[in-house]
Design goal:
This protein is an all-alpha fold. Helix content is about 85%, strand content about 0%. Helix 3 (about 35-50) packs antiparallel against helix 4, helix 7 (about 115-130) runs antiparallel to helix 8 and helix 9 packs antiparallel against helix 10 (about 175-210).
């Protein structure tokens, strides 16, 4: 749906008024077609905008709506994104006990689907929430769980989170010098890895919405980042993917010209 695609793009650009307007149009369309998974996607965008705007109660309602739309599809990963954002929101609202409840729902769902990066994100949410509750012993258990899960995923941002989690673990163990070293390592990694993680998310969304131009742009940025880091093996891998999507776009344009 074009309205949803535009809403997602405008939201990432912080153009919230335009994003919400397109969300309203997308919601009406998906409601009429009975596409509940798509309705959840719209609610997630609305929830993110509301949270960014400081409208926490409205954001909470959007996320709970999204959960209702997706909870019956037990094979879907869509609900994990909602759980993740809801836990962050509830912790921001100082509703830590409620946040822990949904962090465990996120964790159990991810474990059942056997998705390492999602298990890592859920473990991180549980650990962060236990720290908010001043329960360092249980926080340490899920920091270690996060580190174990993160070893089995290519997401570069999890490497940063791993350094932060190790820093927090050493901090609650009162090993302050080692904690500082981990936090410094995290800062050094942050710029490129965080950017790469965002580009990977953009690629996932572009595949879901079949927006090839957005996918091409994301791969171009991944190539540039890899070259800047002098990681030529990674740059070559991204360049191959970029060439494939360029060839696909060229073929489509050629076919349209022949029609």
């Amino acid at each position: 749906n074009g309205y949803y695609a535009i809403a997602s793009i405008e939201a990432t650009r912080n153009h919230y008024e335009a994003a919400l307007s397109n969300c309203d149009s997308a919601f009406k369309y998906f409601y009429l077609t009975g596409n509940t998974l798509a309705l959840a996607m719209v609610r997630n965008v609305q929830g993110g905008i509301s949270m960014a705007s400081g409208k926490n109660d409205l954001a909470s309602q959007m996320y709970f709506d999204a959960i209702e739309y997706t909870k019956s599809d037990t094979a879907s990963t869509r609900i994990l994104y909602t759980y993740h954002n809801l836990v962050i929101l509830l912790n921001n609202m100082d509703k830590h006990t409620k946040a822990l409840e949904y962090a465990f729902k996120q964790y159990e769902w991810a474990k059942r689907l056997k998705i390492p990066d999602e298990v890592a994100y859920a473990s991180s949410n549980i650990a962060d929430t236990y720290l908010e509750l001043k329960d360092s012993a249980n926080a340490a258990i899920y920091i270690n769980e996060f580190i174990a899960a993160a070893k089995n995923t290519p997401d570069p941002y999890l490497n940063i989170m791993g350094k932060n989690q190790m820093g927090m673990l050493r901090y609650i163990q009162k090993n302050y010098e080692e904690a500082a070293q981990y936090f410094i390592q995290s800062l050094k990694l942050n710029n490129y890895a965080k950017a790469d993680s965002c580009f990977f998310k953009a690629i996932d969304i572009s595949r879901e919405l079949n927006i090839k131009e957005e996918r091409k742009s994301a791969f171009e940025m991944l190539v540039n980042n890899a070259m800047a880091q002098k990681d030529f093996k990674k740059a070559y891998t991204y360049m191959e993917a970029l060439q494939n999507i360029r060839d696909t776009l060229l073929n489509e344009k050629t076919e349209m010209a022949l029609v």
